[in-house]
Description:
This protein is an all-beta fold. The chain has a single domain, classed as Immunoglobulin-like (Sandwich), CATH 2.60.40. Helix content is 0%, strand content 60%. The mean pLDDT is 92.
Amino acid sequence: MTIxxxxxxxxxASMKGKRVFVIYPDGKSSRLFHLPLGEGTDYFDCExxxxxxxxxxxxxxxxxxxxxxxxxxxxxxxxxxxxxSVKLKY
Length: 90
């Protein structure tokens, strides 16, 4: 998701230029994303996993980037990280 301002109510201008994932935790889940490198057809793979019972998110990516996770549950939590391999507790 691309967020550049607060118009959606999910984020704000501080998220501009970052890769943003909105997560609705429910049990264990994992998704593989093919994210663009820019213009054209080049991409890199990124896998995001969430374990709602353990309350953690794991990201593994072929490319280092700035990431933001918006976790929607009983309360909304925002987490930020940078790198190719990230594990966060929410």
